[in-house]
Amino acid sequence: MIPKIEIRSLSKSFPGPVNHGRVHALRDVDLTIERGDFFVILGPSGCGKSSLLNVVAGLAEADGGEVLIDGERVGRPNPQKVAMMFQEAVLYPWRTVLRNVEFGLERRKISAEERRVRALKYLRIVGLESFAGAYPRQLSGGMSQRVALCRALAMETEIILMDEPFGALDEQTRILLGQELVEIWSQVGKTIVFVTHSITEAISLGEHVAIFTARPGSVKRIVPVNFPRPRKSGSPEFQNLVELLWTELREESMKAIGRENLS
Ligand SMILES: Nc1ncnc2c1ncn2[C@@H]1O[C@H](COP(=O)(O)OP(=O)(O)OP(=O)(O)O)[C@@H](O)[C@H]1O
Ligand SMILES: [Mg+2]
């Protein structure tokens, strides 16, 4: 069967600071993500995770290599198939919460009634239904991020790319929304690619966790999470996996902050 997402020898660089040549964000990334996977990417800051999602979403071009979705090469955004949630909530200040959630659906020419029904459904799920008429300036950072989550979910695409979607949330909300996301994922069989810094979040949510190396980012190791949900963080399986992922990640995080000799 054709994989849902296939990333082949992908490299991406950016112009560096003046007199510093180029910054190599990603080098030879190879990944195969099957249909229906909840695939977590765990890596140190600056290892190219956001850059990778941008290329998969068709928002940025790679220097080399390619991304295939359902066997077709990605060259531009495909809102029918792929929704993306960015690391920073990007909301339109002049639109209400409801109309921010509806935005992507308007572009897909979905009827006004269907847009409203869908937007309200997902606002209810993230606990923001009563803020449907509010403007972004009236929201906290965490609330804005929930609106952005809603906007991605409301697209009801087969694939969702999520770049640290719960980064600005408090621990409790993060856990609850994670559970909601797993619920939606398991019911409708989406393919989710989820970037995080958090080892416990990766184990709670993922089916597979890919650990990335420090920049230039590439895949260091892929670990399956094969024990049943709900995954209790106190269980021995969970703790063993925390230990394993931490060992891998620690090494890369040390490199990322330029202190690889200090361990
Ligand atoms: N538009 C850009 N122009 C120049 N350099 C960039 C650009 N975007 C990213 N970079 C560089 O590419 C590298 C990877 O950045 P990226 O944002 O993909 O990392 P990340 O893994 O998402 O980091 P974080 O965990 O902090 O979000 C960084 O060194 C960054 O400075
Ligand atoms: Mg990032």
Question: What this model shows, in words?
Answer:
This protein has 263 residues and is of the alpha/beta class. It has a domain at 87-156. The protein has helices at 49-56, 97-107, 112-125, 141-154, 171-188, 199-205, 236-256; strands spanning 5-15, 22-33, 38-42, 64-69, 72-73, 82-85, 159-163, 191-196, 208-212, 219-224. Strands 6-7-8-3-9-10 form a six-stranded mixed β-sheet, with helices on both faces. Helix 2 (97-107) crosses helix 3 and helix 2 packs parallel to helix 4 (141-154). The protein is globular and about 50 Å long. The mean pLDDT is 93. The structure holds adenosine-5'-triphosphate and magnesium ion.
Task: Give a short synopsis of this structure.
With 263 residues, the chain is α/β, with parallel strands linked by helices. It contains 7 helices and 10 strands.
Keywords summarizing the entry:
single chain; 263 residues; six-stranded mixed beta sheet; binds adenosine-5'-triphosphate
